[in-house]
Amino acid sequence: MTSRKVMLLGEIGVGKTSLVNRFVHGRFRTDYMPTINVEIYTCNLPETNKRPAITLLIWDTDGNFGQSIFSSVYLKNAAAALIVGDATRPVTLQAMAGLATGWRQARAGRPFSLLLNKSDLLQGDETPELPDELRGQSSAPLVMTSAKTGDNVKTAFHAAADAIVRRGL
After folding, report:
1. How many domains does the chain have?
2. Which domain, by its residues, includes 146?
3. What is the pLDDT of residue 158?
């Protein structure tokens, strides 16, 4: 089975670890433990009509990296990224924009998605105001997720796997 590295990027407290725990272990924890440096999770995805079976090596990064992640060895061989922001904290959405730009420059041609996590905390049909840099990014899907409820979590990781295979990475 082929394995591919997927990076989780985003500010501290946006829910990167909660998202990967929901995806890999099917659970949500309320006790917050910040990631120090990087934690690596493995998830075997079965074959679908879009792709063969694949193993995702999910690198959950420390939110303190910011733009310095792009000059680190952690990105070596990364096939895709999920760039996470907190839908209730606009400052994290601005950081997402910077990380998206950094990803495009450091890993040109590699797919990434923008995940607006904690969507369960939004009121009704409330939609977060996106920074100008994130509007109209046709090459990067924008997905509303909730690690707490599980909304769109599986979809986001499977879409990353599909994009990796589709691009032959």
Report:
1. 1
2. 2-166
3. 96
